[in-house]
Prior knowledge:
This protein is α+β, with helices and mostly antiparallel strands.
Amino acid sequence: MTDLALSRKISILAYLADHEPTLAELSDHFTTSPSKMRADLSEVFTTEYAAHGGFETPVDVEIPDNPRGKVILRENQTGLLPSLTLAEVISLLALIDDMYGSVDTTTRTHLAKLRERIAQAASEAGFGQALWPAPTVNLEDTTAGLVAEAIAERACIEISYLKAGADLHVHSEDVVIAPVSLTTGSHPLLIAAKDSQLRTYRLDRITDVKILDQHYTRDLGRNIQAQYKADAEFSGRTVRIVCTPQARWVAETIPVESATEESGMLVIDMTVSSMSWLRTLLIRIGEELVHIEPDTVRDEMVKAAHNYLEVL
Length: 312
């Protein structure tokens, strides 16, 4: 075997099977120099067979003399294709699902097609039951793309944002912010500055985005990023509320993470940043409330209730 790793050979072969890049483009793709890539191509799939005492070259690659020339795969008799273990498939699908909400529409569509191909191949290999359905996403949603564009240009934006007010009803608020970065995950966050102060916004609660001519400084962006990393409590606390189906109005009127039915009960997960707001919500739920998690939040609610009773 030559010095070029087999996995790298397969990667180069797989790329050339679908592309006809220039030598410079191929070098950039594999993060190397044209001269090093030319040497790699001369070795690719040249395998020594000791028993035969010679070499066999099952791949014919046309290698140009200059970086602007095309690299063309003329023949491939290896039958080698990139393959993944089940653990790698699961990790890759999880990564794709994690990115769905925070990429632009074009990238989201490509990710969806890639996920479909990977899942289909895994199912045909007999691993279908180990996979989970693709997340339900709006592939045409342009919000993430507009926000990402504004971040790249350090442009301020005006957004319409859905939030629950003091009366626990959802209303839309128009706000001008400086978008700094996006997180990934099932509910991506837009990290931003409002009046130079750190704010976070759920991307799925933004209903409209308008990019403005106003721009913000690099220093502001760095400061907001530093504040976000340092302020662990800013992201709020995840709370699970278990209640009877009669409390479905909670999931219908308040933006929550998820709402599912389990054993005849309604299970609601949400992120809250104010314990007083949560107490108000629980009081409104009243007798329909069955349980609340985690225990630390439940204990806080119980302690607060006892304090109120002592005052009364």
